[in-house]
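re: ur question from earlier - yeah i can do the single chain one, its not a big deal. heres the input i used so u can compare w yours
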Amino acid sequence: MKPEIEVERRAGMIMGARHGHMTLTWLPDRGRHGTRTWVLSTHDGDTVRRIRLNANELGELAGI
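and the output i got, formated as tokens:
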């Protein structure tokens, strides 16, 4: 059985995703050149990594 990925959307935009004990959350600020900053963290609150995605990469996430 495949684990489920929960995707949080608001007004059609992906705001975050959750899978297992990991969460990907969008930081709502203006990124440079159309990038958006995301934080990958564990459910106990440890920040694992900050990543930046541009509009094309974000579009690929929409296919989840």
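The mean pLDDT is 74. not sure if urs matches, ping me
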